[in-house]
Specification:
The protein is of the alpha+beta class. The two termini are 31 Å apart. The protein contains 6 helices and 3 strands; from the N terminus they run H-E-H-H-E-E-H-H-H. It is 55% helix and 13% strand. Helix 4 packs across helix 5 and helix 5 packs parallel to helix 6. A 3-stranded antiparallel sheet has the order 1-3-2. The radius of gyration is 17 Å and the shape is globular. The protein has 2 domains: 75 residues, no CATH class; 31 residues, no CATH class.
């Protein structure tokens, strides 16, 4: 888990984008970026709204209550978000998304790259 401090929610957004649109951080990083000292229910609601305003999703679906808990932040609408949301959704259509992510052309391309890089 990166040990990065964010001064603002926009800094957090920038860092998520710089890390392939997904990263896991401790809740105290998010709380600090939001500009609060405690994670009361109103602060957690405000954090959810601030994330959504920036097109960011989070897991777990309920913002953690304790600052020592990790939270995965991801950019909605990206490939990372599609996979995260597919895994979290119990739906046969989402099974296809998961299968495609771990198989198909992506896996074949990865194998070719491994063969070239690791003879």
């Amino acid at each position: 888990m990166p040990e990065v401090a964010f001064k603002t929610m926009d800094d957090l957004n920038t860092e998520v984008e710089a890390n392939g649109n997904v990263m896991t951080v401790m809740m105290w990083h998010v709380r600090d970026a939001y500009g609060q000292e405690r994670l009361g229910s109103q602060v957690r609601t405000g954090i959810e709204k601030a994330l959504a305003k920036r097109g960011l999703g989070h897991y777990p679906e309920t913002i953690p209550t304790y600052q020592e808990e990790p939270v995965r932040i991801y950019k909605k609408g990206t490939e990372a978000a599609v996979l995260i949301e597919a895994v979290l959704s119990v739906d046969s259509e989402m099974d296809d998304v998961i299968r495609d992510a771990v198989g198909g052309d992506a896996a074949a391309t990865l194998e070719k790259v491994k063969e070239l890089v690791c003879p």
